[in-house]
Design a protein that fits this description.
Blueprint: E1 7-9, E2 39-40, E3 45-46, E4 51-53, E5 57-58, E6 63-64, E7 69-70, E8 78-81, E9 86-90, H1 94-106
Parallel strand pairs: 1-4, 2-5, 3-6, 4-7, 6-8
Antiparallel strand pairs: 8-9
Length: 107
């Protein structure tokens, strides 16, 4: 589920090229790590205004708080909030996670 104004940026800019504006860097000058996929698991909630950056995976069942900037991968069933995107707490205990997953498999 996505809230309004969520943005995802799977590309990145080279910062190590001397003597060129970013707009002048050609596609053949990009590195593989400049364009990494974003992977979002099942049953993820991403609240309004969140920004998901290059190369991030968001594990199933996780919740991303409004306005969060996600620049590191998020483990499954984790709630992250804020611009530092630090793990704050587990969404559920392990038993509840397994129960939830079994219920989702029924649907």
């Amino acid at each position: 589920m996505f809230g309004p104004n969520v943005s995802m940026h799977s590309g990145n800019h080279r910062t190590d090229i001397v003597g060129k504006y970013m707009k002048d860097v050609k596609l053949d000058e990009k590195r593989p790590e400049d364009d990494l996929d974003i992977v979002i698991g099942d049953d993820v909630w991403i609240a309004a205004g969140a920004i998901i950056l290059n190369g991030v995976s968001i594990g199933e069942g996780s919740i991303i708080g409004a306005g969060s900037v996600i620049n590191k991968s998020v483990p499954p069933y984790t709630i992250v909030v804020g611009s530092k995107s630090q793990k704050t707490w587990k969404r559920w205990d392990e038993y509840t996670i397994e129960f939830h997953k079994s219920q989702m498999a029924i649907k």
